[in-house]
């Protein structure tokens, strides 16, 4: 390979000046005249588009635009699992509006220059090509993607309150047709190689090691001649689609996510405009969105997710941290099987143990179904599913655990049973084996008391369904050693989950905040509020489902158990509704029984409120409350308990609470979590509402000391950040 003339540097070099930073893009030219531009951000596992990278891209284009001997250009990445991950979100949130406008226009200019090159261009994609990474690929003539499972191509911008504005909203519908493009853009989808090929988003697939050869073959084809999609890509069809889709989006988002409707507007208006006019729509749309609180909150959540991936335990030793390589799960029920399945997807051996062969067989069947469903949805290949199953060892009888690094107990939520299991595990495992419990509310410290060397006991609270819920609460018992916490944290990160570290306390963080909300909903129902009003009130607030539907999904028996655990600790403010036990006695467990607050008929698309549930209404005192009043009561209790978690130092900072509630319960993401919501609403206003309800006789609304102190001092949780 050769190198074209170097990018011009300053003519007056200062020998004492520091060396300029390494470039984010390397340029080489093959002997066949094909230029290879390799993204390789120094000191980082990912490539991103910031002003520095875009400027360097412009300098490279300056060179290749004037190199008459070139036959084509291949854009590729040197990173293992990232092509280009997208734009630098930090600069997007911290910059002034004019700076953001400049960055948007700079990015559009670079993509336009690539699209205008007279020689063929190919994006050779291995790893994630998301947002700006997908948009540079769209500006190329061809796209070839690797078959590696890390390869994902898409435009997820709406998930962070933005829209594709470097040509994605303009070029994708012109490439694959308006309806298919809207399906990707409005849902913020990312596609693996095969579905991307089927849609026409990429032109070919190849193993990662053959990617360059496939790209070179495409260049030999010359400039492509693409289908025009005239039947769908016209003003009339776009207007019809917009009229049909907009009401659907409003029903789904309840108007809380403006990026989705703005993206629909930009794409459907832009399809019948010139490319330049469509790009102007993109620019104006994103500049409007980026200044909104919804966008800022969604981007904050993104950064909290990234923080969780890099989290460490401050006082844990940094060296000689043994990797957890062999695991076991005790209990093959829904949670145990789900945990074992997820661990096996990371090619980590896991023993699945239960009391008899029948229970283990049920667990293995559950695991097999998750893999089969995942294969249908292209989450796994058939080979990956077989390999995953091969990493699960069923164990209907006791097996030696001395070589196991981590044992996760996922048995029934009974303290006496868990103590008995842990005492036996301590005998079967080595002294170095970490013993974890998946309890959702019981005291991890009390469980640890049953174990020799209790410092190795920790809580690992996965959420159901395990293969969909990203959050894991890592619970530090009072005995847990820092190095055990660190090893457990690294394991959770390595298997692709997002951890939050919490101190042992009834309900930890998520259930402690969630349960008062569900109990209040139950008491309001018992007092005459309708199932529909309660659920609609919280759907309007932005929750993914209402509290009554959530009780059905969780199971009334499970909810009652957690509620009793919390009530034992916080009985002064938690009054369990009497009808919950009555419903359980009547077999109204919720969705798993087909009946609860709702009727769950598999033959019907939607669950319907159960008319028989009205027999459990005890009074009419809440019947006249409006949906706004119902919502206020339920939300205030979550806010109060969230503040208590911070007050009692169950977590270290407000972001931990908000992150846990969003990832663990779906707390309205656009609101940023219960504490961010408190700041935006006003702490004084929140406390005033609590005191008003307290004075009316509802003593459980009394604001915690932290909230009262903050009101007196005029403080907020995030101090304006």
List keywords for this structure.
single chain; 721 residues; alpha/beta; 2-enoyl-CoA Hydratase, Chain A, domain 1; Rossmann fold; N-(1-d-carboxylethyl)-l-norvaline Dehydrogenase, domain 2; eight-stranded mixed β-sheet; six-stranded mixed β-sheet; 28 helices; 48% helix; 12% strand; globular
Structure description:
The protein is of the alpha/beta class and 721 residues long. It folds into 3 domains: 267 residues, Alpha-Beta Complex (2-enoyl-CoA Hydratase, Chain A, domain 1); 177 residues, NAD(P)-binding Rossmann-like Domain (Rossmann fold); 204 residues, N-(1-d-carboxylethyl)-l-norvaline Dehydrogenase, domain 2, CATH 1.10.1040.50. Helices cover 48% and strands 12% of the residues. The chain contains 28 helices and 20 strands. The strands form 4 sheets. An 8-stranded mixed beta sheet has the order 13-12-11-14-15-16-17-18, with helices on both faces. A 6-stranded mixed beta sheet has the order 1-2-3-5-7-10, with helices on both faces. Strands 4-6-8-9 form a 4-stranded mixed beta sheet. Strand 19 and strand 20 form a beta hairpin. Helix 3 runs parallel beside helix 4, helix 19 packs across helix 21 and helix 19 crosses helix 22. The protein is globular, with a radius of gyration of 28 Å.
